[in-house]
Amino acid sequence: MSHHFDSPTGQEDPRLNLCDVYIFPGSPGQTVVAMTVNADAGISAPDTFRSEGVYAFRFDLNGDAREELTYKVRFEEPTHAAGDTHEHVQSFEVRRAVGADALQGVGGDLIASGTTGRVVSAQNGVKAFAGLAPDMFSANHTLVSFIAAFFKEGKFTPQAFANPQQLLLKRNITAIVLELPTALIGDGLIRIWGTISLYGHAPEVQVARWGLPLITHMYMVDPQVREEFNRSHPSDDLTRWAPVFADVVEKMTKLAGSSAVAQEYGKQLVERFVPVVLPYRLGTPAAFDFLEFNGRALTDNVTDVMLTLMTNTPLNDGLMPPADRVIDRFPYFGAPFLPADQVGLKPLNPASKFMPSH
Amino acid sequence: MTDDKLNTLMSAADGWTRRSVLRSAAAFAVLGFIWPAIPGSAAWRTHADLFAFSPGRPDRLVIALVTEMPALDAAPERVLLHAGNQQWDIDGAEDSGRYESGDRLFSGAIIGWEAGRDRVYKATLIETQTPPRPPQGSLGIWAERFGASGRQRIGNPIVAELLTVDRTLHARHSQTTPHDDRAWLAVPLAERVANIAARAGVRAPRAYARRVAERFLPDVIAFRPGSAIGYTFAAQNGRHPAEDVNRLTATILTGSPAALPRSTHFAISNIFPYFISSGSLV
Predict the structure, then answer these.
(1) Looking at this predicted complex, what is its ipTM?
(2) Which of B12, B22, B98, B205 is the most core-located residue (most Cβ within 10 A)?
(3) Which of A134-148, A218-232, B95-109 has the lowest mean pLDDT?
(4) Chain B contact for A235 (CB, 8 A cutoff)
(5) How far is Cα A198 from Cα A301, in angstroms, rounded to an integer?
(6) Looking at residue A281, what DSSP letter applies?
(7) pLDDT of residue B1
């Protein structure tokens, strides 16, 4: 699970659980950004978005760990689809914000609007989709035991992956997907991260953040620390989170016997991870792999990469993202799993207060 | 693949699934990694490793070329060590000493470990002041040795492994310098990596192979002064003799996590020449 169920806030309200972010090339001259929310949507999570939520894709265009450009997506309250009391629909708007608006608030130029569950094609070349989608993250249940063995028992247990168990098999999620003219983002190397904030009667507060996969699950075992990370900003990562990453990998590589000088490896990992944002050279094929982080395609096996980096040991959790659920056109997420596909699946998040009504 | 070889790989794989081991092994058969030396291959290539590491002091850098121990009656081999614009020309007969510049030299027998057994190797190393960071960010470290079979050029483990199984590439590599690499080696290297990556099931293997070629050419150990040193999954900056590069190299070339027996490695002390010389065990 990338950031699935990673914090008390996300467990209590899955609509505020930012699970994954992707960025990859779309049609010629276009770039696709996607965010997934609501892990286990339709079973232990809603298939809707929170109306007080601001779902944002933030772009650092100059390497200063601050956003110069933000695309914000906001939703109206859900209503029932015509003639179907079980299906929910929400109106949504997409805004492009620069300058002070990129940093906070709901301001920005309206570039697309539509309804969930349908592809929106705007005149400026922007496409948007928000709705139910198959969860493309491949999560091995034994990852939990591997991490627990390290943090709680001080053990390195690669044998945990000998019998892979797909945690998210045939699970859905809700996805927000934008296909943007690349020129509306910038050029060259950019860095992206996603956030979810609450904006309404109270001052705006960020409640979720995603810059790289599995950060909270692999490096922060304390739920309150995860909450703190989710509310932090990349510009603070070097002072606040770099020591956490370095400490974890120093201990892990000593256990694994995989580093010549553990402290040096800790420094190398910090250089690679901090700030915790996803770099991408616009216009190039996306690949999150053992060579580098360059965007992220829907089928990239990020778990193996992050496990290997954490341990400086080539680790294979035995699972792959479901490539058969990817399509070659917008919104690139294929059809969600139907109820008939999910017979027998139990809720993954019993702490959720938002079990779907049927 | 015989059951014995599969069992060897599985025991080194620390509990991997059989499917992932077989996938890796299919690619590794191309590399000639863990199998006994490919018949006829050993005669034209002497294994050599190049290291660049800090001896515990960030202001000092050690560059070391380690090779198989030459025959007792072999003529001393001349070695050239390069770091950016600096060069050290070392007569193989030299033992140890200090240059006027303050650089220190060692040339002699050391102990290393391969497949769980200790062996004697020949090391030629320089300890020098850590160079300043160049404008381009990193400098290239590489070596030349002039032995009975002619000139051999040594750089990073990724390229070295591909040269192991390709005599034609190795021959041309030995006649050129890193300055020439991108022009002539990028395409054949990418072709070979694409073949390996495709067998391992990498998505878009040709695009992946081009990225590998772009990253690891020219054939040098890249060194970025002031950054943490290590040839690791997180970064490849210098190379420490205690590191296991087999797994990293195989993972990079196949694009998939690759379990292999540990590569030859060396214990390092904090006393010059930092390697364990074979004389120290007497």
Answers:
(1) 0.93
(2) B205
(3) B95-109
(4) no
(5) 31
(6) E
(7) 34
Beta carbons of A175 and A331 less than 8 angstroms apart:
yes
Report the b/e string of B71-84 with b at 16+ CB within 10 A.
Answer: eeeeeebbbbbbbb
Q: Look at the block and give the residue holding tokens 């991997």.
A: B16
Which residue in chain B is spatially nearest to A308 when comparing CA positions? B233
- C-alpha A91/C-alpha A130 separation (Å) is 10
Asked whether B118 and B111 are in contact (CB, 8 A), the reply is yes
Is A192:A44 a contact under the CB 8 Å cutoff?
no
Using an 8 Å Cβ cutoff, are A132 and A42 in contact? yes
Q: Which of B28, B252, B258, B48 is nearest to B170 (CA)?
A: B48
What is residue A353's predicted lDDT score, i.e. its pLDDT?
66
Q: What percent of chain A has pLDDT over 70?
A: 97
Structure tokens at A308: 């290997």
Q: Are A234 and A215 contacting, i.e. CB atoms less than 8 angstroms apart?
A: no
In sequence order, what are the residues at sequence separation of 6 or more whose Cβ sits closer than 8 angstroms to the Cβ of residue B36? none
Q: Which residues of B153-191 are buried (b: 16+ CB within 10 A; e: fewer)?
A: bbbbbbbbbbbbbeeebbeebbebebeebeeebbeebbe
pLDDT per residue as tens digits for the range B153-201 = 999 999 998 888 788 888 999 999 999 999 999 999 999 999 999 998 8
Q: Across the interface, which of B228, B233, B242 has its CB nearest the CB of A290?
A: B233
Contact between B227 and B235 (Cβ < 8 Å): yes
3-state helix, strand, coil in chain A (%, to 5): 25, 30, 45
Which residues of B touch chain A, with CB atoms under 8 Å apart? 14-17, 19-20, 53, 203-204, 207-208, 211-212, 215, 227-230, 232-235, 237, 240-244, 247-248, 250-252, 255-259, 268
Query: Which of these, A241, A295, A228, A314, lies nearest to A273 by C-alpha position?
Result: A241
Hey, what are A20's tokens?
């994954």
pLDDT per position as a tens digit, A50-83: 999 999 999 999 999 999 999 999 999 999 877 6
Q: Taking CB atoms and an 8 Å limit, are A161 and B208 in contact across chains?
A: no
